[in-house]
Write a structure and sequence with these properties.
Blueprint: E1 4-7, E2 11-13, E3 18-24, E4 33-39, E5 46-52, E6 55-58, E7 66-71, E8 76-81, E9 90-97, E10 112-113, E11 117-122
Parallel strand pairs: 2-11
Antiparallel strand pairs: 1-3, 3-8, 4-5, 4-9, 5-6, 7-8, 9-10, 9-11
Amino acid sequence: QVPLLASGGDPMQAGGSLKLSCVASGITGNRSCLGWFRQAPGKEREGVAIMSGGSTTYADFARGRFTISRDNGKNTVSLQMNSLKSEDTAMYYCVASNEWCLLSLFPTRYNFWGQGTQVTVSS
């Protein structure tokens, strides 16, 4: 079991910024993947952003507003979220895979999930 410890979720006003971080100990290898999903109340879990090596992919709603990054020295993956909207309100989950994930935004590709951190954006 790979522990994924996410943090950074906070209440925020629309238009503000938040940075989520996730410590992902044990995720190694050039083809490993790290990323973020989210789930709003009453909605399906959806992919936000994924990275592997130097490659990234973003959901349409995240592109241009969110940035995923990885610090290999600290074994962390972060999600910088700017221009937050009320519809960004959700539980955000850090995810990982030790195998190549195809940079997929489908949850079945990821066998490790963090506990989630709540982001609430008020308009």
